[in-house]
Known about the structure:
- The chain is α+β, with helices and mostly antiparallel strands.
- It has helices spanning 89-107, 109-114, 120-144, 192-198, 204-207, 245-248, 253-261, 266-279; strands spanning 26-33, 43-51, 73-84, 152-153, 155-161, 164-170, 174-179, 182-185, 228-233, 239-243, 286-293.
- Helix 1 (89-107) packs across helix 3 (120-144).
Amino acid sequence: MTSPGTDTPTSSPAIAPTRQPLDDEIDVYGLTHVGKIRKVNQDHFMICSLRKHMRVHLTSLPHVDELPLEGERLAYMSMVADGVGSGYGGGEASRMAIERIIEYVSHSMQCYYTADAHKEEEFSTALEEAAMEVHASISKLAEADSERRGMATTLTLWIGVWPYAYILQVGDSRCYLFREGKLTQITRDQTMAQELVDQGVLGKTDAGNTRWAHVLSSAIGGMQHAPVVTRIDQGWHNVGLLCSDGLTKHVSDDRMRDRLANMTSAKQVCEDLLQDALDDGGSDNISIIVGRVIHKDA
């Protein structure tokens, strides 16, 4: 779903891709909070980088720790997962989703180390397959244990393979892009309300006020699961935002845009957005990740 008055930026001719940012040019931060009503936080998030590692088994060199063993950064990855289910089932599902994705990425050479990230269809298919494997793992666990029945989770994943970013979406956690003063919602909410909007039954302004607004039409571990992958161009002046619906229930797109337009750091804007959500009621768990690249000569 795209925010009113914005377009999904699948390309950016105005900002030509340049060299990949260095590690110290990436400003990224994330946080999660239980909110003011819930007793348990079923959200989880992750920020990590993927690299080609060099492992030294034996050497006569005295200062091997000083060598650049980490290798080239292949990608930068961020994830937000919002658990669904009673008790601790939702939290377990969101934790498992992130852990299984990390395992898949770490062990799937075909997906991330040998696949050409510039071949959009192949790379998108690999990400969809990762989501399906995670779904299968959670579903199998829920079927084997009656206390885990109904456990499921949203999953919004950003993987940056410069000069592109791929966004994997299942559920209603969101990914936004702030570019040139405009905030765009990249992901489409997979909710019953959004399905009714798409069918013309509800208007966009009414969707958030119905009982279907937060009933998921697709979830990892749920009855329906429909992973969607979107590719966008990355640029030096872009800001990415991932969040669970604990933020979007209370903070409008206009408020988020204003916060991002005046941010001084990823940490500062995450903390300010969290406080905005809490001040408005904090009725749900809240998770936020914000990332941007800053040219160190700027």
